[in-house]
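Re: How this chain folds, sequence and tokenised backbone to follow
Notation: Tokens come from a learned vocabulary of local backbone shapes, not from coordinates.
Start of record: The labelled sequence and token lines come straight after this line.
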Amino acid sequence: MKVTRQDVAELAKVSPSAVSYVLNKTPGARIKEETRKRIVKAAAELGYRPNIFARSLVLQRSHNIGIAIPHIDAFAAFGNFHFSETIKGIGEIATDSGYSLTLSFSDRDGLDYTELFRERRVDGLIIMHVGTADHLKILKLKEESYPFILVNYHLDGENVSFVDSDNVGGAFKATEHLIKLGHKRIALVNGGMGSSNFRDRFEGYKMALKKYDLKFDRGIAFQVHVGSRDIPLIIKKLLGKKCDYPRAIFAGNDAFAVEAVNVIRKMGLSVPEDIAIVGFDDIPLAAYFSPPLTTVRQSIVEIGRVAAEELINLLGDGANNKKQIKRVLKTELIVRQSCGAKLKNVKVKGGEKRK
């Protein structure tokens, strides 16, 4: 026999409307905390399941959180560590809060974000893998006051909500670590400046050099287009002058770092004995790579959780959903073997290896 809202009301000794307010999380409903708990407990005891379709019609809401991933197809997205972990974090919070997820992909011209709202397919939107081509579409969402949050991206100078890692601080710690190991010339192998993450990591790198009075050398700071074959050319260029190549590299992500190590080995040199390397992200491979990769850890799952929590809070506070969410999560330097810090009886000073 199906449990009804009336059954929950009778067990909790409240009105059916109070049950509706609590279980639908109706904004502005004045329900005492003691009463709310009693209703939730009664619903759980009876195994009450609300009619999602009916609730959506009444509230004019879909009870869906949208995840938009433009410029990539679904197969590639789920094969990507960052995307899958972020979606995992979003899903944990959404499920606990009674929301379903709607995923949208596009590997060509991006996505029409406003259409998702106009068709009431989503109540709020989390946007990942943003590029410069999406800026106008995002500003249109803001102009029309739709609730949305960017993940792992921010628009400089715009009052747009986002959740991201401390890329500046993480890159600073990575570069500082290499400096404290004695390196004076530290090359940078970073992503393109179209990504706010790579822009921030570039800034963190330069900040560390400045703090320790080291000159920024544009000739050893490189940009790599993700998915290109630039890194072999870059490493060969860096190592072209065998007596004067940088003895340390900060890579803007772990994928760049791993590829750099492989190229260095093919050229007959060793990591970290000849060149120290630090990456960024702490992907699963980092701990098991040879040598294990020193890197900056960011919690991708936690970024997803925080983004979902903040968006759901916005949805529950409709009158205030124009406020900006600006969450920057801490990063952590994970020291392993690739930087040379754990080599026994080896001191690195002035960029030169000495035994």
User: Anything to note?
Assistant: The first helix runs from residue 5 to 12. The first strand starts at residue 64 and ends at 70.
